[in-house]
Amino acid sequence: MVLSWLLNSMAPELAEAFLYVDSTQELWSELTERFGDSNGPLLYQLEKEILELYQGNDSVVVYYTKLKKLWEDLNDFSEVPECKCAATCTAVKKILANEQRKKLIHFLVHLNDEYESIWGQILLLGPLPNVNKAYAMYKEWKNKDKSREDLVWFKK
């Protein structure tokens, strides 16, 4: 019954290649062997899109959202190593912190030059914030700047 359901849920051209399998397990093994390890092109494409994404004409909000979506898509294919040692092990925490640092730097480097003063201030912080915190800091700065603009406009 499951075998029939799996075959019927496939594209007809693909299902024809598996009509003579004897069990669900055999079908699953065949599918995994043929299609299971083919994430290479997708990983390549995601990494390429991340590397080539700059703010350009986008607002910081749009740029950050695009970048965050690509990172989440890439994360779906990444495995975080499990540590089986004592609870005091910090290896996984260090790996994740390193990933966050790389994301922060990428985000800041690919912003337009007009935000150089903001990212300069962020980079002087110790320890460096994660990319979400840096984005929140940008929004806070932007809101304060907008308030100052409104105040100047009101005084005129």
What does this structure look like?
With 156 residues, the protein is mainly α. The protein has two domains: 2-35, no CATH class; 40-155, no CATH class. The protein is 68% helix and 0% strand. The protein has eight helices and no strands. Helix 4 (40-52) packs antiparallel against helix 5 (60-75). The radius of gyration is 24 Å and the shape is elongated.
Helicity, in percent?
A: 55-70%
What class, by secondary structure content? Answer: mainly alpha
- Radius of gyration (CA) equals 24 Å
H/E series, N to C?
HHHHHHHH
Mean pLDDT: 83
Q: How much strand? A: under 5%
**Largest beta sheet, briefly?**
none
- In DSSP terms (H or I, runs of 4 or more residues), the helix count works out at 8
pLDDT under 50 segments (min length 5)?
Answer: 149-156
| Strand elements, count | 0
- Tally of structural domains: 2
Distance between the termini: 77 Å
Q: Name the shape in a single word.
A: elongated
